[in-house]
Amino acid sequence: MDALQLLIGGVANGCIYGLVALGFVLIYKASEAVNFAQGDMLMLGAFLGIAFINGDRADLPFLLGLIAASLCLGALAYALDRFVLRAIFGQPQFAMVILTIALGFILRFAAGTFWGYDPVSLETPFAGEILRLGSLTLAVADLIIILATGALTFTLWLFFGRTRLGVAMQASSQNQMAAYYMGIPVKRVNSIVWGLSGVVSAIAGVLFAAKGAVEPSVGLLFGIKAFAAAVIGGFGSLPGALLGGLLIGVIEQVAARYAPSGYSQIAPYALMLLVLILRPGGLFAQIAQKKV
Amino acid sequence: MSQSVRIILLYSLMFAALVAVGFAQSWPLALAILNMCLISGIMALGVNIQWGYAGLFNVGIMGFAALGGVAAVLVSEPIRGEAWSVGGLGLVASFLSILAAAVAVGWVRKHLPQRGRGLITVLLLIAGYAAARQFFGPAVGAIEALDPTIYGNIGGAGLPVIFSWLVGGLFAGGAAFLISRIALGLRSDYLAIATLGISEIVLAVLKNEDWLARGVKNVSGLDSPVPSAIELQASDWFISFAADIGMTTIEASTVFVRGSYTLLFVIVLALLMWLTERALHSPWGRMMRAIRDNRDAAEAMGKDVVARHRQVFILGSAVVGIAGAMLVTMDGLFTPGTYNPLRYTFLIWVMVIVGGSGNNWGAVLGGFLIWFTWTQAENWGPQAMEFVTSGMAGDSALRLHLMDNAPHMRLMIMGLVLLITLRFFPKGLIPEQIRR
pTM value? Predict the structure, then answer.
């Protein structure tokens, strides 16, 4: 029972890691570069959620606030790609890396200036509620996170498989030039992918804030672990990113329980290094041959 | 403006700024900043070897610096015979069992067929871990129980601390070798995340393994390679010497100690600079540039790209390790809790990029300039906020809010310096010079 409970808590955390990793992979597929501000986008999403939902702020219902936050962050991410990142298109990859790192600093500073540096938490209708199933004690927040992630994943799967825009995104991530020749507006599609990544980050951020307190620097560490999750999944694979996130969430919980204190923080890195040693292309290697 | 004129001009401006601090504030402070500038310069040099020569993206500089730091403890602390007698055997046995497991895994993965290999690997790893744990737990318990308030660790080798600079280089180079086995030859951002992961792991080990270097209980009062200030203040010749140059004894002794460190650091920096410049202008250096600029062509010409990358990654990390050992030696204090990625990884990267990656003189200048700005910027944030809010009422909410946030502006200033440099000097203050 104890192990099952640990597993569910870990899966709930892992869902959030997985969603952020998903954001990494989406942007990687669009821009051929790693967005080092991904964790800070989660942080911003969490703060936006708090600003829309909490009683002393805008006081919207939970679902409405979640939608508002994801629309805001989606628009912001779209604008970032349209006006900032497109300007350095074609520059060496390192320019993009430095630019996204700098963006992270700016977002952190902006959030700190707007909302302060003290931890705040989200007021949710299900905060602190507990569900008892036999001897199992489950936090409702965990279950909602798992359900929401499942629903979002299903929606994304439908979107990529069934809609024109989703297929266009797949095409331009596989071969930009060929997609361009087929009449797909690759640049606009890339910006929309950024927007989509923003929406996913905002949902992840709101779910994250439903579990615990948020402060401006929370995104840095979270982003690094989600990056590790994407590496574990094999960069470039969407299901791989989710699975990597789940693995990281579970192993972190297990390590927090059984490993000597102080080491639970590094369990994700240890797992990642193990995967790099044993399966260098990640668990879902599909772009191992592609050089960056 | 020719390159050498530019170098001389920028370095003279830098030293003028340091001298200005000496006159305006105090000489001990100016020397303290100069010493940290020299150490930062050496770290930036190490990163420049990796990034500038070969384009390897190392974001685990913090871990290598900390490995250098722990070398200072392990070399210079006195040998603690009793700790070794209660726990030495157990430690050695646990390391041997890990080693045996690693060798067995290596053999299995080389000689057994693909099928079933994974399962045997996992079983061997678990067996090795269990065996190591068996010896490790009691040994560590015994060592940590000995005088836990003062020691509780296995001590060091009892050698002069200056040897630790070499040992620190070896430690960091060894860690770099391990990382290079894992992540070199894969995609370039995998190296970044692998170095980041390893540096976090190194820090977690240093913080939690009290038997090694006392963990977060810190080691203080390390051996010093220069005469101590207190000894100087007690000796007659120094008191009369201080009187001759017109300083108080205390100030003169501080200046003397810090000046001696400056001398040592300048020697190390000059030596490393000479070696790296020689390497850069040798056929080896041309080969590295060829690999960096067109990897495929270099590979087609028969260069072993992964082996060269490994070489340059180990060398660069070793230089960072040397700087880390020097830093701990100068402080006389090893505090694993104070290593953070912002100060030890991000800042060093800013140094290399602002100074000019690919150019050793540029990287070292970046080290000087950014450290100087970093120490001075501590006051700029509050001053700027004071200026901006000077028109407001003393107790207005906005003013108080802004003043509260002022300390966080130090990082903003670093980001601003980075962006301005990239805008106006995209290749850094002293850009790389390509000789044809």
Answer: 0.83
